[in-house]
Design a protein that fits this description.
Structural class: alpha+beta
GO molecular function, one term: DNA binding
CATH architecture of the largest domain: 2-Layer Sandwich
GO biological process, one term: negative regulation of DNA-templated transcription
InterPro entries: GAF-like_dom_sf, HTH_MetabolicPath_Reg, Tscrpt_reg_IclR_C, Tscrpt_reg_IclR_N, WH-like_DNA-bd_sf, WH_DNA-bd_sf
Shape: globular
Keywords: DNA-binding, Transcription, Transcription regulation
CATH superfamily of the largest domain: GAF domain
Number of helices: 10
Strand order of the largest sheet: 5-4-3-8-7-6
Strand content: 15-25%
Distance between the termini: 39 Å
Number of strands: 8
Order of helices and strands: HHHEEHHEEEHHHHEEEH
Number of domains: 2
CATH class of the largest domain: Alpha Beta
Protein name: IclR family transcriptional regulator
Length: 266
């Protein structure tokens, strides 16, 4: 749907071996951001690489077990070797395990779908979700999806807690990527939402990606005080109206504060 936003390490890709690594990383991120997998044509469009280059890189990655092709759909997906590597690295980044109880409590208490997102450069990445019991759900967010900061409630919650100069830099750098997620993601609409986050503590996405699909989010701070993560809830608009919105906001803030303390924030 959109081209990837520049993440840490994407500038100055270099040539030769360094360029190959950069391009392979682009492909892995693009595949991770597509829940049902990706085609060669889709990956070429998302990364700006030619189809022959994409095919050549996928062949090499598949030989190492880093990607694989679905026998059912033919789409490319992340491979088993990435799972192994991720499991080894997980103990250094225990955020999913720490956040799991908060996600369960939010989903059980509200009936909505609860999500954990992390900041990566100019983006947020959805890391985990727990489905709520309410039968009608919003399917905008899913694990692996990358969104520009300022898009969706998690990105708004994180962006609002950055220094003002950094907010302006982010808004400028992500203008093109935000536009891919709908015409409402302009600074004139985003800045008032950031003011509300600072006033109320929670971010509200009033159907800016998909009409009728709302979200609320609260920032989670790491030991340095940086807004490194966000907890969010998504659902249909009527479930986010009036007093219920206040209830959802209090639940999000309580869990965000709890998780921030577990990460060492005081």
């Amino acid at each position: 749907m959109t081209e990837a936003v520049e993440a840490p390490g994407r500038r100055g890709a270099g040539t030769g071996g360094t360029q190959v690594v950069h391009r392979a990383a682009q492909l892995l991120r693009a595949i991770a951001g597509r829940e049902e997998g990706a085609t060669v044509a889709g990956l070429a469009a998302a990364t700006g690489l030619t189809r022959p280059t994409v095919h050549r890189l996928l062949t090499g990655l598949a030989a190492e077990g880093l990607v694989e092709r679905s026998a059912a759909s033919g789409a490319w997906q992340l491979g088993p070797e990435l799972y192994v590597l991720g499991a080894v690295a997980a103990h250094r980044y225990p955020i999913r395990e720490l956040a799991a109880p908060s996600l369960r409590r939010l989903a059980e208490a509200t009936g909505e779908s609860a999500f954990l997102s992390a900041r990566r450069g100019l983006e947020t990445v959805c890391l985990a979700r727990v489905e709520g019991a309410f039968p009608i759900r919003s399917h905008v967010l899913y694990e692996g999806l990358r969104l520009p900061l300022g898009v969706a409630s998690a990105g708004l919650a994180i962006l609002a807690h950055l220094p003002e100069a950094e907010v302006e830099r982010v808004l400028d750098a992500t203008a093109g990527a935000r536009a891919q997620w709908g015409p409402l993601h302009v600074p004139e609409r985003i800045r008032p939402l950031l003011v509300e986050v600072r006033r109320r503590g929670v971010a509200v996405n009033p159907g800016m990606i998909v009409e009728g699909s709302w979200g609320m989010g609260a920032a989670v701070f790491d030991a340095t005080g940086a807004p490194a993560y966000a907890l969010s809830l998504t659902g249909i608009e009527p479930r986010f109206a009036g007093e219920r919105r206040e209830l959802l906001g209090r639940a999000l803030l309580a869990e965000a504060h709890r998780l921030s303390r577990e990460l060492g924030h005081r």
